[in-house]
Amino acid sequence: MESLILLINEIQRACTALGDYGGGNNALTSLWEALPTVAVVGGQSSGKSSVLESIVGRDFLPRGSGIVTRRPLVLQLHKTDNGTEEYAEFLHLNNKKFTNFALVRKEIEDETDRITGKSKQISPVPIHLSIFSPNVVNLTLIDLPGLTKVAVDGQPESIVEDIESMVRSYVSKPTCLILAISPANQDIATSDAMKLAKEVDPTGERTFGVLTKLDLMDKGTNALNVIEGRSYRLQYPWVGIVNRSQEDINKNVDMMVARRKEREYFETSPDYGHLAARMGSEFLAKLLSKLLESVIRSRIPSILSSINKNIEELERELDQLGRPVAIDVGAQLYTILGMCRAFEKIFKEHLDGGRPGGARIYGIFDYNLPGAIKQLPLDRHLSLQSVKRIVSESDGYQPHLIAPELGYRRLIEGSLDHFRGPAEASVNAVHFILKGLVRKAIAETEELKRFPSLQIEIVAAANSSLEKFREESLKSVLRLVDMESSYLTVDFFRKLHVENQAVSISSPTTTINQYGEGHFRKIASNVAAYIKMVAKTLVNTIPKAVVHCQVRQAKLSLLNYFYAQISQSPGKRLGQLLDENPALMERRMQCAKRLELYKKAKDEIDAAVWVR
Fold first, then answer.
1. What is the DSSP letter of 147?
2. Is the pLDDT of residue 190 over 80?
3. 497: number of Cβ within 10 Å
4. What is the pLDDT of residues 124-154, one digit of tens each?
5. Fewer CB within 10 A of the terminal residue: the chain, N end or C end?
6. According to its UniProt record, which protein family does this protein belong to (predicted)?
7. What's the CA gap between 285 and 290, in Å, rounded?
């Protein structure tokens, strides 16, 4: 199982390199969240750093007043063979070995400042430090900033809440073991670490209680009530630690010597001698390592399940994002033409009823056009006063003899001129709908979402074609109206004449004064009847012209001119059209890297489990 601990270490390092780390705002699914961890939590001056140095057996952590740990430190311990040299490596410094641990401390300080600056701000971006030594056990610990109650000079007022929020983001995960460190010379009820641990782990099944500074308690007092679980019970036994004194630190007392002094303290202590076998930093390290192995073993199925789920999600998203753009000019042209065809297919589906939108065109012909014709001001044009005036003006200096034919023509022409408005409105309404369908089709073409420049170009080309179709359609419908004015339907007036004669024969006494109101009313009635007949014709022929010139042409040749232009474009132009949205490019790259990480992690975990 030690191989699994080392494997988890490697996966954590790979996760951090890709921006996936506990406590961070991960835009992608997080593998880190599924990995078991041990987080070290304590208030400032609780002895947290000394505990870590005792476990490692090296003096390597920054010290000072105030907040010293301002970024999470992922401390990965690797046990090596006896007699081998101790050294440290940082993830951000590839293949650089540190054998001088004073330089390790300085690099931690420098790397912290690279992210947070010289200020006292904190950052959730972790520092990864691996230590290889025969004096450690295989173990990974995450050293978090010390909890504090008051902001000091140079810190923002929110620092207290910021630190607690960062620490809580780690320890609230069910895969995180909490190493809660409290000083023995303070009341355990006031411990910041235990207070937070109890909030996120009320049953205590993930919490290890560590008491430091046992040797600094007032004479005649001890911490047995806590250590033996009488005043604060946890699922795991409390562990007492005796750190180096400040004098030892100042004198650079060797950590191995400090470990020996710690063992001697517990073995000879009248208060803790009976507990000496399970006290001290060495016991704590072995206990944590053993438990971490057990947790990893139990979590392997859920880790693999999470990895498999994330692999499926990432592969699905990469399919939606599409493949990276080819460099070859021919391949780029092929890609562009393929996306244009996909757009045209969706556009045609909107027109043909496969998608919503095309039915609005039928509404123009079935409702808007007839309604607009019915609302034409023909009654005003064919009023008695208007008819008298137009007929009189048409007669000129000599009144008509039998029927005012020229007056009829001018009345009809004037009436038909009103039809130009509804005809033009129908063309423009269909044009507006077609432009809207272009926008909808662009938005619904998944392949185009990656390429905003190409979207703009296709919309411009489509709208340019639609404008040409509109102009041609407008000419056609106005020509239909003009044709009705140019040549009147003679049969209508012949039948009208026959009907009038029949009326005269059947009623010989009925005569109409050709200059009286009755005569002019009859003319208005005849013209209105003729216009009604023509209106029925135009209601049928205008839609035909619009569909033929606009809708049909849009289906057949919407992007024909664009195709002709793009096929002659240089490679640089094609590259500009396939200039992807930078956010999508970044997303694809992140997904691809994260997918690679998950697949590698799955293979290595599978291999480690089979080996075991």
1. B
2. yes
3. 11
4. 888 889 899 998 888 888 899 888 877 666 6
5. C
6. Belongs to the TRAFAC class dynamin-like GTPase superfamily. Dynamin/Fzo/YdjA family.
7. 9
